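User: quick one, fold this
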Amino acid sequence: MPETVHLDVLLVEDNPGDARLVDHHLKSPAVAHFVDDVTVSHVESLAPVAERSGATYDVVLLDLGLPESTGLATLDRATEMVDAAPIIVLTGMQNQEMAIEAINRGAQDYLPKADLDGDRLVRALRYAVVRSRQQRAIQRQTDQMDFFNSILQHDILNGMNVIRARGELLESELESKEREYASTIVQWSDDLIDLTEKVRSVLETVTDEGGRDHEHRELQTVLAAAAERAQSVSDECTVTVEPHSVTVIADELLDDVFGNLFLNAVEHGGPDVTIDVTTAVEDGVVTVCIADDGDGVPDSEARRIFERGEKGSESGGTGFGLYFVDTMVRSYGGDIWVEDSDLGGAAFYVELPHASL
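Assistant:
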C-alpha cells in the first residue's frame, strides 16, 4: 500500500486576499497529485513564527513585504527562525536581481504573485520538499558517520593501543614460542591501528563540509618513501622512481595513498614484481604513473576495484586500500584510474593539483 504523503506548510502573508489565493492554489488538483494532504498554518508576520520555535514545517511560503520588515531582510530573519525548512519566496515585485540574491541567501525558489498558479506552485513545492528531504537524509548520514568516527577514536583505537602495549610487554618477557605469539599480537595491533586511522581519515573527509586542510607536499619524497616501504615487504621486487622535483596539493595522508598503491603492486604482482614510476606535469596537473609487470587488472574491474569493499579474488585484505586511495585522491581535487601497462601488468595513474610556488 503506497505511503500517505502529508505536507505541513507555513504561510507567512499579511495580505488576506493573497493568503486566500495561495490557500486556493494549495487545494488545487495539481497539488493533490503531489501529496495526499496539506496542512496550512497561516500567520501575518514573523512574530508568531519566533514564538513557535519548536514547530517543524515541510516548507515555508514567505511574503517579503511584512509589517516588521521588507525585502531580503525578511528572508534573513525567517531563515534564522524556521531551522532547516525550505523557504519559497512570494513577492509582488518583478525583480530579477532580487530573485537571484534571494536564491543566493538560501531561498529554494522566488515566485512573483502575479504569475502564481497551481501548476507553478506545485513545481516549486515539489522541488523544495524533495531537496529538503535529501538534505535531511544526508545530514542523518553525516551524524551517523560522526558517531562511528567517535567510536573509532575513543573506543576501538584506545583499546587497540592498550592491547599493543600489553603485547609489547609480553614480547619483552617471554621466550621461544610464546614470544612469537606476543610478536604476532603486536604486529596485528599495528595493522588494526593503521586501518582504524585510515577509516577515521575517510570519515572525516566525507563529513567535513570545509574539507581537510591541504598543504604543499614534495612528491619525490613521498614516492621515495613508498618505494622503500614496498622493498621492505619484498627485497626481491625492483622499484624505479624517475627523479622529478614537483610539489602537489595534498596532506600528510598522501604518504599512505602511494604506500597503498606500491604495496598493492607487490601483493598482486608477486615478490619479484618490477615497478616503474614516472611523473608528468601539464596544465597545472601532476600525473604519476605506477606501472608493474604483474597480472594486470581486467577491463571489467578497472573502475570497480576502487569501490568500497572490492578486492581481487587472490587478495587476503579487506578491500579497503584502493577505496581509501580513491577517496583521498578525490578529496585533493585529483583523479585516479587504472590501465594496462607497457610492462604487461597494471598501470595506476594518479592526477593531483600542481602547487604553483
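User: anything notable?
Assistant: Residues 313-318 have pLDDT under 50 and may be disordered.
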